[in-house]
Every structure is written in C-alpha cells, then in structure tokens.
Amino acid sequence: MQIRVQTFTVNKRVPLTISRGTTAQSTNVWLILEHDGIEGWGEASPFEAGRTPQTTAAIAQALQYLAPKLIDLTPYDRQPIDVIMADLKLPSAARTALDLALHDWLGKRLDLPLWQLWGLDRRRIVPTSVTIGINTPDAAQQRLRSWIEFTTVRAVKIKLGSPEGLDADQAMCAAVLKDVPDGAKVSVDANGGWDLAGAIAMSHWLGDRGVTYLEQPLAPGNEQDLLPLYRESPLPIFIDESCFNSFNIPALADRVHGINIKLMKSGGLSEALRMVHTAQAHGLQLMFGCYSDSILANTAAAHLAPFAHHIDLDSHLNLLDDPFTGATMQDGCLVPTDLPGLGVGLTPVASLRGR
Amino acid sequence: MQIRVQTFTVNKRVPLTISRGTTAQSTNVWLILEHDGIEGWGEASPFEAGRTPQTTAAIAQALQYLAPKLIDLTPYDRQPIDVIMADLKLPSAARTALDLALHDWLGKRLDLPLWQLWGLDRRRIVPTSVTIGINTPDAAQQRLRSWIEFTTVRAVKIKLGSPEGLDADQAMCAAVLKDVPDGAKVSVDANGGWDLAGAIAMSHWLGDRGVTYLEQPLAPGNEQDLLPLYRESPLPIFIDESCFNSFNIPALADRVHGINIKLMKSGGLSEALRMVHTAQAHGLQLMFGCYSDSILANTAAAHLAPFAHHIDLDSHLNLLDDPFTGATMQDGCLVPTDLPGLGVGLTPVASLRGR
C-alpha cells in the first residue's frame, strides 16, 4: 500500500478558549492510503494533552518515516502494521491517521459503512454537545445563542477552569445556564483547571444546577485526588487527559464514572474499540470527544458513537473552511451516512493542494 | 433472518477424564442461519463449568425461543440482537451458536475469512496442545503415544486434580513427561481439583519439571486463594472456570497471569474479542480453549488464535465422527483456511439429519 500526507489549515468561526489557552485555527494532517485502486482517508489533528505536545510537524514527519515501511503490506495486514507502529513509537495522532485510512479503505473495499460492518445501531446515537469556551458571562451567553441559531442544540458543554478562578467559572456558567434550551443536557469540562477542593466545591455547585457530568476536573498527574472527589461528587466524573488508551483504564476504574475517548489520544478506531470494551468490562460510562478535528475524524468517531452515553463531536461545526464532508447533523445528533467506509468526501469548494 | 437448530452426537476416540468426571460423547447443537441467500453456521456444546450446567436441551430450547424474535432483523443488526439476547438471559453457549453463525454469515457475505476481516496474521498462531486425561501412569503414557502417532505434537496439556490425590497426580505427570517430544511445551490443568496448599506444592513440583503454566488450580469460588498462590507459584497461573467473560476479568487481574477464553463461556467471538481487549489492557496473557466442541467451534476460535500465547483447541481431534471440516493442522498448529466466513463445511460422509 502507498500512503501520502498533506497538511491543511482550518479556521474556527469562533476562537475557543479552554483552561490551557485559546485556539483560532489548526493545521491538521490528511492521510491518503491507496491500495488495489481504492483510497482510504485519515486525519490527524495536533493536540497538547499529553506530556509531549503532538505537533503537526511531528505527526507529518512520523507518517513520512512510516510510509516506505508499509509498501509491501496490504490494508488486511493489520496485525503486522500495528507491530511496526508500536516499534517506531509513533505519536498517537499519527497512528490515528493511518488507522482511520485503513478502516476507510476496508469499508470501501467491502462496500459497507463501518457502523454497519460493526453491526451498530445508528438510532442509539445521542445528541452531540456544542462547546462554550471560557469567556465573559455575556460573551458565553452570546456564544450559546449563536450555536442555537446555527444548529439544533440538545446538549451543551461548558468549558470552565478559568485562570480567573471559581467565581469567574460560576458567573459564566450561571449566565449560560439561563439560556440552555429546554430538555438539553449540560455538562462541564474543566480541562484540569481545578484543585481538589475547588473540584469538590464545584461538583456540588454544578450538581445543584442540574449539570449531568463533570469532565477532567483535575490536572493529569493528580489522579490520586480523583478518589476523594469520586466519593464526594454528586456528579459523575469523566476523565479525558488522564486517559489516552485502554492500558490507562484499569488503574482509573475505581475513581471515575466514565472515560472520554478521543481518536487522537487512542491512536484510532481500533484502540478506541479496545477502550470501549475495557471500559464496559469495568462498568464505566463512555463518551467520544475531539480536539480541532475536521469532520473527517469526527465522522470516524461517529461510527462508534452508538456505544456512547455522551457525545462531544462538535469541533467541525465550529470551522469556517472544513475541506471535508461526512456525518450529518440530524436533530442534534452527528450520524454517519450510508456511504461505504467512513463516508467522507471533499467539499465542492475545497482547495486542498494537490487535489 | 431465519435460524434453525438441530442436535448431533459426536463420540470421542478416547474418553476424557478430568477432575469433575469422564465424557465419552457429547450431543451438540448446530445452528443454521439463513438470510439473503447466504447460510451462516454456529455450534454450541454443552458444559458444566458454571453454577448452572448448560445442557444440550436447555441450549436448543433457548435458541428455539429466540428464533421468532430475529425474523425481522438482519445479520447486520448486531447491537439490537445483543439487546434481545441479554434481555432473554440466554445461556452463554446458546448465544455462542448464534454469534458464530452471524460471523460466518458476515464473512461469507463479504467473501473474506474472519481472520482476514480482522486483519490478523495466521503466522502468529502457536501450536495447539493435545490433552492427556486423568488415568493410570501407564494409560496416560499410552495416550500421549497415540497422540504422537495421530498428529504433530508440539504442546501437551496434562489433566491433573485426580480424586486419588496429589501422589496420583505426580505419578501420572511424571510418566507423561518422560515421553513428551523434544521442544514440546507442557502445561497442567487441574480443573479446580486442588486446595491452596496442594496448588502451591504442585506449582513448585511442576515448575521444577519445566511445565510452562498451570491452569485453574483452585475450584471456582475460591478466587480469594488465588492471591497467595499468585505470590508463591513459580508458574504462571491461568484461570478457566473462574472467568466466563470480560466482566469477570478486572477482579481477577491482580491474582492471575492469564485467562483461558472459551467460546461457550463467553457467548461467542464478539465477547471473546472483548475479553482479549480487556485482558490485554490488564497486561494478562491469553489462551483459547474448548469443551466438547467439534471442529466448527474450534475453527471459530482459531480465527482469534493469532492473539493467544497458548492454544488448547484439540477436542475435535479426539472425535471419531466430527460431521464438520474447518481449520487444518499445520505442523501442530490449528490454522483457519482461506475460505470465507468461518471456513467450515460438512464432511463428505456426514449424515446429519435433515441435510
């Protein structure tokens, strides 16, 4: 098989601020696999959740280094490919780009969408949340209003963990809660911006206001503090940055209620499925989330969405210039189509270099 | 989809005695699924490892009860089918029969063998052990000799846990060890026939004699005693009857080195794969085993065999009248073929009723 990669830059409609900083655009990696006359596509988006930031350059370089080692293999040789990727210690997002392309290729080769190949039921997909970044109360309220104008909002994720402290968090959250549509589910993601005492206090404050769950309240590395929080919190606790893959789950299963699976952390759909199985064996809840992914990677995650209790796959909805098409929004839910593989294409006006 | 079931009886070349008793024949269930002009086949074999024995009659009855509930579904509707099976609380072996047929159907529909659909590498399959049942030292030695005449023996599993005690176990084991072919791996399965003190003593005795691993030394229900055994044993400890499915793994992961996955316990290939993923996340080793399965179910397990450190899929080799064909023995390894689905057929002389 042959693979080639090219980068592309996507710009956000509204810059997004979380506890770690603000992003207005992202330069992602597009991987095109070709074998036997069929193309499979994958994507990697850079992110900073781990110890080593996974930059666009590092991801693209890793894939360039990998490409010649795959030439004598076919997309069916998944076990040998995984051995090669493990030996090279590729960044997880680089593995994701290839994994998505391998799955897309297989589904196209078999003329089946992945959700159907896996026997999943699209009617089980719950609404995706739309994300409200850290901002002033007025601006956050305005952001929710513009989301509501833009799409059907049945779930809202509020980013807290403001550098300005818990008072700022509460003021912004209270402002957003006023305008949440009736029946919509609200969750909070602190992106590790709180300490234990703050997280416990906020869990009660948020629980009193009907918030559904609380994501990554403590910074990665503070997993020992999850135990007392787990005991005290009236809200289910989900972890994101504290859990990259299935191997991280057993040690966390006694101190969280659920896991936020992201393809860029896991290394792709194969490992995401291993995380689903491991988390289920531990009785944990599941959600799927994203970084600055285009609709390509979010569509890939949507194929596994029937497993999830919560979905947060809205990054592509906040892009001005997504070059791809894929899963469609249906009454607030991101639903993969009947097209084979991932079901991803190029937007009519996409001007990606080399296409 | 339509399913129909029929029972068939297979007779052992040599009756097999384990700590719980002797079997000379088994009446198994053959499930035929039909949809869209394609047949998928599955098998259930009765077994007694759990609290409630899963009898042939109970399995067949459960499947008869299930059949009409599947009529409006297709083999792609795996998630809804699993919900129906869970709601009905079907015996695991009944679920296995349907799961195998669903996988066989899918592979035939896609014109791919399952190992290839899953991207697995058949060259990773390790030799299957051949089983020496509890017997006199002379008879056990003779059994090994007849195995060696019958097939290439690269791994031997010795059944211990004799009702006559540890001296009888040691005498029989010592006799068999004398005739094990050079380079062949030897393992011991006590089928829960020992207490903690006996298991610790035997782990040292067997370790001194080069045995590779020790399976289910203690009876199910005695899992608390696995902790001291785990600390004391020089041999890796595998569990079988103590672990049916992925949900059983987390509580055992701190006290065993590996899991024996059997399709009849798990409920099929789907749950076996969930067990593989959960066990891998816990850093556990894996093996695949069988009950009185024909080559149909053993071939299904062989498709997942590239994941396993040890393989014990020899029950069909000890059948006089296996009605099926499937995976073939290649230099001591049970290897699935290039045929689509499970790659299982009827033997030329099979006289199953209704065919």
The quaternary structure here is homodimer
How many structural domains can be distinguished in the coordinates of chain A? 2
Structural class of chain A: alpha/beta
Tell me the name of the CATH homologous superfamily of the largest domain in chain A.
Answer: Enolase-like C-terminal domain
Summarize the largest interface: chains and residue counts.
A-B, 30 and 30 residues
First-last Cα distance of chain A? 19 Å
Bulk shape of chain A: globular
- CATH topology description of the largest domain in chain A: TIM Barrel
**Major sheet details of chain A:** 8 strands, parallel
Strand content of chain A: 15-25%
Classify the helix fraction of chain A into a percent range. Answer: 25-40%
Mean pLDDT of chain A: 96
| Poorly predicted ranges of chain A | none
CATH class of the largest domain in chain A: Alpha Beta
Number of helices of chain A: 11
Radius of gyration of chain A, rounded? 19 Å
In total, the number of strands of chain A is 15
CATH architecture level-2 label of the largest domain in chain A: Alpha-Beta Barrel
